[in-house]
Amino acid sequence: MKKLLLGVAWVVAGVACAGTLDGIAAKVDRDVITVGDVMNEIRRHPEARNRADRGGETEMQALYRTALENLVDRKLILKAASDRKLDMQEWLVDNRIREIVHDSFDGDMNKLTAELDASKVPMSEWRNKIREDMIVSAMRYQMVENAIRVSPAQLKKEFGEHPERYVKGAKADVRVILLKPAADDKTPSVGTRADEIFGRLDKGEDFGALARKHSADSHAKDGGLWSGVDPEDVFREEICAALAKLKVGETSKLIDLDGWGFIVRKERASAKAKMSLAEAYDLVEKNVKADLARDAYAAWVNRLRADAFVKIYPAPAE
């Protein structure tokens, strides 16, 4: 059975420019997309990069196909932008780069430069990718998002057909005692300290008072109280599972998470409840717009493809 040579391509793409990889992935009119272009497209998106690192052959095949299709669409959209004389002024690109540096590199341009150097990506090439991203976004807004109109009938249909999407999350008041791993041989172990706390709770001592004294949790000064939270939003699944088994007023056993000890107490809980259309209006509208935008984008790209020459080549195989 033939196997994709994407494992090799993945390694090579990390240290070489797209043209180094010998292989055509697609042709779009007179433009060529290489295998290296596809691999670099995967690398520049953190989620796809992480999936590639974790996944096997099947995952890589799916990532390759998706990235290639996205690059074909990108070529077509950039050509459509050029035909419409749409470009991106340099000061707008500068502003976008400043935002990226602020959000992803602690405001330090040197960190961005160092990462590009490590990846052997020229700044000019990276800057052009940002510029193209902005053009693609602007075209998508003009041709898709800006034309979307949502009717009351569509809102009611979405709300009626997908009630599971419009539910208020369960809320709870939870108290937490967090015990750090022992820093040295003189500090009692987490288990020893937990046993002492459980003993004092059994004697009727207040959980909040013990949290203020012993907990390393950020809410310790409030008696370990996390008020009005959806446990799934703020706690790890092991803690959520423990809380789910507790009745109001009950305290968990010691929960060991990577050497840290958690003791939790359920103070109050409310069940999930269906939202009214008024309560869910903004979310319903957002979901309807997303569905309409997805369909409109697909139809637009299909029209662009129909007017262009597009040839997809088989993925490289051994």
What labels describe this entry?
single chain, 318 residues, alpha+beta, Chitinase A, domain 3, 4-stranded antiparallel beta sheet, 3-stranded antiparallel beta sheet, 13 helices, 54% helix, 14% strand, disordered N terminus
What is the CA-based Rg, rounded? 27 Å
CATH architecture of the domain at 170-271: Roll
CATH class of the domain at 170-271: Alpha Beta
Head-to-tail CA distance between termini: 9 Å
Mean pLDDT: 88
How much of the residues is beta strand, in percent?
Answer: 5-15%
Q: List the secondary-structure elements in sequence, H or E.
A: HEEHHHHHHHEEHHEHHEEEHE
Helix content: 40-55%
Number of helices: 13
Describe the main β-sheet briefly: 4 strands, antiparallel
Classification by helices and strands: alpha+beta
Q: Strand order within the widest sheet?
A: 5-4-7-6
Low-confidence stretches: 1-21
Instruction: Estimate the global geometry from the Cα principal axes.
Output: extended
CATH overall fold name of the domain at 170-271: Chitinase A, domain 3
Q: How many β-strand runs?
A: 9
Describe the protein:
This protein has 318 residues and is of the alpha+beta class. 54% of the residues lie in helices and 14% in strands. Among the domains are: 100 residues, no CATH class; 102 residues, Chitinase A, domain 3, CATH 3.10.50.40. A hairpin with a 2-residue loop joins β6 and β7. α5 crosses α7. It is extended, with a radius of gyration of 27 Å.
